[in-house]
Structures are given as C-alpha cells and as structure tokens.
Inverse folding.
C-alpha cells in the first residue's frame, strides 16, 4: 500500500471541482489544489484577503510581493480577476456565494463536524482565520488531510475532541488513503488507494464505513499513486 503524497491528494481534490465553480482554498494543504486545476476548466478561486480569479503559483523569480493569498504565499491573478476589501471578501464567504471551500483539519467526525483551528493544547497557537465563516457559508466543504496523526490515531472520529470550527458542515473528506463522503447514513468510501483493502481502511479509521468503491457516481478512475 502506497499512501498518496500531498500533491497527489491535491490533484484528487482538483479533479472533483466542476466547471464554473467559485472556490476558496484554505491555508496549508488546500493551497496546493490551485496548481492542479485543469487549465481548460474555468474555475474561480477566491482568497479571503480579497482576491477573486486567483491563478496558480508564479514561476520562480516572477513573484509579486503585493500579490499573495491568505497564507501569504505568492500567487498570480488571471485575466478578469479582481481585488476588493477584506470586509467584502468575508461578506462573500458568509453570504453563500462560494460553491466549495477546501479546508485542512485536525479532526472530522462521522456527522461532518469540523475541528481545524486549535488542538486545545496549552501551548498551541489558535489560528481560526476565516475557517468558521467558510465552514458555514460555502455550499460544500471539502476537507483535505492526512488520514492519521503522527502517532497513528485516525483523524476521522466518532466525536471531535478538539475545539469545533463548525457542526455538520463537511461534505467530503480527502486523505492520503481514501475519499469519503459524509452522509446521513454515515461515512461512504468512494475511492481507496491501490493496495489497501476496504477492511484495512475500516480498521485504520476505527469506524464502521460503507463501501461504495464499486458503485461510483461517475466514470472517473479510482485513486492511484500516480496522479
């Protein structure tokens, strides 16, 4: 079994973003998604610091220090892109104008509860940013994360033990092992990496899962380690 790299997870997320979608990419892992969006698919990337029409990262040496995303990383602006006030950006986020947001997470529960801003540890630095606004405002919330902690514990849990960002907001979870949908009937596995069985994934996750890898909603191929 070969886990997906972070870039491969990002490419898998990018594959599911439809034509014409307005999308916010959160700080951290989700910023990688922008580099994997198909150039022939028109997708409008939003950044909470006040950008719409954000393009892929610039080539080395072409960075503009005044053109950055919310994570202070250099980005490009596509033709027709725009700048606007921070308050207007949050109004877009809170007002239901984003189709999808992609966020990182410390934990996601089977109900789709999200914990991604604080581990609760006394020495941890809280970093909520606009995550709460995105989680309640976007029409769909995709979470992109590694399946387990460094200690081997599953980040997909029955109930979140870290401070919550939002309740029942997550639509789909992308990890280095699988893609899972959050549904009223529980977690449904859509894709699994090559070499990992459903039973093994269920054991690693520590939760009852539903296997839908043989009945995908589309004709796309399953996850592989070569993206």
């Amino acid at each position: 079994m070969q886990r997906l790299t972070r870039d491969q997870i990002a490419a898998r997320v990018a594959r599911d973003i439809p034509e014409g979608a307005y999308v916010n990419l959160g700080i951290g892992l989700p910023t990688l998604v922008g580099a994997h969006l198909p150039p022939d698919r028109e997708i409008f990337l939003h950044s909470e610091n006040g950008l719409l029409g954000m393009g892929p990262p610039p080539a080395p040496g072409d960075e503009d220090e005044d053109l950055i995303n919310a994570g202070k990383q250099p980005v490009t602006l596509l033709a027709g892109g725009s700048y606007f006030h921070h308050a207007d950006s949050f109004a877009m986020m809170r007002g239901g104008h984003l189709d999808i947001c992609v966020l990182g997470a410390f934990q996601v529960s089977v109900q789709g509860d999200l914990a991604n801003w604080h581990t609760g540890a006394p020495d941890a630095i809280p970093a909520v940013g606009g995550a709460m606004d995105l989680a309640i405002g976007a029409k769909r919330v995709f979470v992109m994360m590694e399946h387990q902690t460094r200690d081997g514990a599953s980040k997909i849990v029955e109930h979140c033990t870290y401070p919550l960002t939002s309740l029942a907001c997550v639509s789909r979870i992308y990890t280095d092992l699988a893609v899972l949908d959050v549904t009223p009937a529980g977690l449904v596995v859509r894709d699994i990496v090559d070499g990992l069985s459903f039973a093994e994934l269920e054991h690693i996750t520590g939760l009852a899962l539903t296997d839908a890898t043989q009945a995908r909603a589309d004709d796309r191929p399953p996850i592989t380690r070569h993206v």
Observations:
- The chain is about 15% helix and 25% strand.
